[in-house]
Design brief:
Number of helices: 19
Mean pLDDT: 87
Radius of gyration: 35 Å
Oligomer: single chain
Strand content: 15-25%
């Protein structure tokens, strides 16, 4: 080779190697520096499984703090590790015969480190897995939920398969109940055998219990009595609420239908509603007591004023036709309410005019109470600018105004508290006691007259069966036709009895409501009142008042 050319070749070779080393260094820089996060995450996915582990979910308790409404129980789940299967044939055979859904999922997955075979196994499924002795199916104990009191299921709610609240208190207070999770890593050993070990990095914190104002005994008794009444009357649905008017505590709130928390695989969402707060109704004559409250407070009538009820079951007020159940002649206004005469109450309501709307709003109708359960209805009061000539008459006996059972109960709590409103409490908290109103909305004289009228309803009016020896029982009933396809159906009715039971400092408000019985010729006096009586007597026995 020409000696003159050798330095040229050497230079070319040198620069070629220099370029090669430059490419290698550039590639290393690109891989180790620029793409470091990508390859680091890839390595983590290959060698590490990260998951979170929640602490045991905190319980839900009744007002005593000793009776569980929701508690934890162990559930067993099965899983496989798809990239570490020792006997695929055996695994496929077992899954295909006993867990076909998991079998098809396993065939479709690509590069997955963890797969549930099934969550919340039945005892039979656990026995099948144990009997097959398949080394590729692992059993895992997970926290589940158990609900000892079926009567409280709509209020308490349930959790999903991951133990998160779906509805009710379980959902409303989910974060308080679950606490914070612990982070857990499953890391693969680099040595042969693919061994795993567990490493906990961030410890979690336990959830806090939730105590409700419910009394387990009263909740059970009310639910049992309501279910019996609904079955006896073949009614479509019913609701009952018991409250302590002094604190606003809801001691019992039940409804039929209501789902069974132990059997939720095919859950009808309609049975999960807390109907006492989610459903708004026209309650009929129950509203006459609120008309009386407004009329007495405004001074447009006195309790002893004689009101002409026309001694007819069909009469006219300002040319508007009005039907009433029983004919009465000229009677005192206090008996117009006690005997539930539509003609008499409409006559007085006409004197109130627009002020009737103002008083309905003052009593809390048409707005939500703020109870911590999703789906609460606000109700509706027809405002004066939408009134027809019939409106004030309809409003006087509970039509063109819708409310929830809870709103009716709160209005009666106001009467029991001598004109002072109260906020409903479902969750026990010291703070809410101090948030109760001290503002008096109605005068002592007006409240005293209203209480006397309600006593008369029990003594000789439409709720005589609600009387309890030794107690002051103040009630009002309502039988309302239901609206169907824009028309009121006289064969479909809602029956309500709302009242106050008092003896000394002891006070309770009870509202019973039944709907759509197929029995003919029924009224609140023969449906809701007997239910009121049954619940009241059982309540007094349970609270050791009898």
């Amino acid at each position: 080779m020409n000696p003159r050319i050798m330095p040229l070749y050497a230079g070319i070779i040198f620069f070629m190697f220099l370029a090669l080393y430059g490419c290698i260094l550039t590639a290393l820089f690109w891989i180790q520096i620029v793409q470091h996060p990508f390859y680091y995450q890839l390595a983590q996915r290959q060698h590490t499984i990260m998951f979170t582990e929640l602490p045991p979910r905190a319980p839900i308790l009744d007002r005593t703090g000793t009776h569980f409404l929701a508690m934890n129980t162990e559930q067993v789940s099965a899983f496989v590790i798809p990239d570490n299967i020792s006997d695929r044939t055996q695994l496929d055979t077992i899954l295909l015969h006993h867990f076909p859904t998991a079998y098809h999922r396993l065939r479709e997955i690509v590069d997955k480190k963890f797969m549930y075979v099934q969550r919340r196994l039945s005892p039979e499924q656990i026995n099948i897995i144990n009997h097959t002795a398949c080394k590729d199916i692992y059993l895992l104990k997970e926290p589940g939920r158990y609900y000892p009191l079926n009567a409280a299921s709509c209020i308490v709610g349930i959790t999903d398969i991951d133990n998160n609240g779906l509805f009710g208190i379980e959902r409303a207070y989910n974060q308080q109940l679950i606490g914070t999770p612990t982070t857990v890593f499953l890391e693969k050993d680099a040595r042969p055998g693919n061994a795993y070990f567990i490493k906990t990095t961030v410890p979690g914190t336990a959830g806090s219990p939730v105590c409700l104002t419910l009394d387990s005994d009263l909740q059970f008794l009310a639910d049992h009595a309501l279910a019996e009444s609904v079955a006896k009357l073949n009614a479509r649905e019913g609701s009952v609420i018991i409250m302590d008017p002094d604190t606003g505590d809801i001691l019992a709130m039940v409804n039929v239908p209501c789902f069974d928390p132990q059997h939720t695989k095919s859950l009808d969402l309609d049975t999960t509603k807390v109907r006492a707060i989610t459903q708004q109704y026209e309650f009929g004559s129950v509203f006459k007591v609120f008309v009386a409250l407004a009329a007495l407070e405004e001074g447009v009538v006195t309790p002893d004023e004689i009101v002409d009820c026309q001694n007819k079951t069909t009469g006219y007020v300002d040319g508007r036709r009005i039907n009433t159940v029983h004919a009465h002649g000229a009677i005192p206004f206090k008996d117009v309410v006690a005997l539930s005469n539509n003609i008499g109450i409409a006559t007085v309501a006409k004197r109130l005019g627009d002020h009737l709307y103002d008083h309905y709003v003052r009593l809390g109708f048409g707005r939500k109470t703020g109870i911590p359960i999703a789906g609460e209805s606000s109700g509706f009061v027809n405002p004066p600018y939408q009134w027809s000539k019939q409106s004030v008459i309809s409003l006087s006996y509970g039509y063109e105004v819708t409310a929830t059972v809870l709103q009716i109960a709160l209005a009666f709590c106001l009467i029991a508290r001598d004109g002072i409103p109260v906020h409903p409490r479902l969750v026990l908290s010291p703070l809410t006691i101090h948030q109760q109103s001290t503002t008096t909305l109605y005068s002592a004289d007006t409240i005293a007259i209203i209480k006397d009228i309600l006593r008369r309803t029990t003594q000789y009016g439409t709720a005589q069966r609600a009387a309890i020896r030794g107690y002051i029982v103040m009630t009002k009933t309502g039988t309302a036709n239901m609206l169907e396809h824009g028309m009121y159906n006289k064969r479909k009715n809602r029956y309500t009895c709302a009242g106050i039971i008092q003896k000394g400092t002891y006070k309770r408000v009870i509202v019973t409501c039944l709907q759509e019985s197929d029995r003919p010729n029924l009224f609140a006096a023969t449906t809701a009142v007997p239910l009121f009586e049954t619940i009241a007597e059982q309540m007094l026995i349970a609270e050791r008042m009898l």
